[in-house]
Amino acid sequence: MTASQQRLLALGILLVAVAAAWLVVIEPISNAFAAQDEEIAQSHQMLAAYERRIALRPLIEKRLAELKQDDASAAGAIPGVSAELAAANIQKIVKTIIEGQNGQIRSVQNLVPVTAAGFQRVEIQYELSLPMTRLKAAAYRLETNAPYLFLDGIDVRAPENWQSGPYETDPPNIDVRWTVRGYRWVGTQ
Q1: Is the distance from CB of 111 to CB of 123 less than 8 angstroms?
Q2: Gap between the Cα atoms of 98 and 176, Å rounded
Q3: With the CA atoms of 93, 145, 155 and 88 taken in that order, what torsion angle do they form, in degrees rounded to the nearest 10?
Q4: What pLDDT does 187 receive?
Q5: Inter-residue contact 74 to 104 (CB < 8 Å)
Q6: What is the largest CA-CA distance in the chain?
Q7: Distance of CA 79 to CAs 45, 88, 89, 133, 185, Å?
Q8: Rounded to whole angstroms, what are the CA distances from 121 to 124, 144, 168?
Q9: R_g (Cα) of the chain, nearest Å
Q10: Is-contact 181 121, C-beta < 8 A?
Q11: pLDDT tens sequence across 31-69
Q12: SS3 of 124, please?
């Protein structure tokens, strides 16, 4: 073998050795460093996101305090995120009270809600039948209820031909028409 061939062979072996060293040692180490760099970059992004969330904490605490203040100022208000849901809550309360007094609701009509001073007035007009001796208890339970309810426009009609006899044990039913009003907190507009 000539000197030039030996040099080429030595150069070839050297290149193979360098390539093998690159594939076996340097490339895995380089890949490991690249993976670490990527993890560090992701950690920096997560840290920045956490710092942004931490920076929002005072704003969130302020909003929570405002909501708690709104709740405190709305004690006794009808729960519900809309006038319709508040009306449904009122109807549920009234139905429970009237049926608990052996009464019967004949018709229900939601009136148009009115908003003023941070509250929304929700009114429902009822026509019902109730034993005469239970009217006072039903009205008392409605007006002492929590959430607060108010009666308005009360019209009571007793049967025309009613007479109490010695053998009658059940009081007659009276027809009652009234409007039940409650207030829902809507906050400052």
Answers
A1: yes
A2: 11
A3: -30
A4: 73
A5: no
A6: 144
A7: 42, 10, 7, 31, 8
A8: 10, 18, 43
A9: 40
A10: yes
A11: 888 889 999 999 999 999 999 999 999 999 888 887 776
A12: strand
Helix axis angle, 135-143 to 83-100, nearest 10° = 150
Distance separating the N- and C-terminal Cα atoms of the chain: 99
% of the chain surpassing 90 pLDDT: 52
Half-sphere exposure of 188 (CA within 13 A, CB side): 5
What residue ranges in the chain does DSSP mark as E strands? 104-110, 114-116, 119-131, 150-157, 173-185
Q: Which two tokens stand for residue 21?
A: 């060293």
Quick check: 150 and 107 in contact, CB under 8 A? no
Please name the residues in contact with 170: beta carbons below 8 A apart, sequence gap of 6 or more. 131
- Distances in Å between the alpha carbon of 90 and those of 109, 156, 184? 12, 21, 11
Give the residue carrying structure tokens 């290149």. Answer: 15
61-94 pLDDT, tens digit each? 888 887 776 665 567 888 888 999 999 999 999 9
The token pair at 62 is 């302020």
Residue 70 CA, distance from chain mean position: 15
- What length does the chain have? 189
Tokens 């007659």 appear where?
Answer: 172
Distance CA(56)–CA(68), nearest Å, equals 18
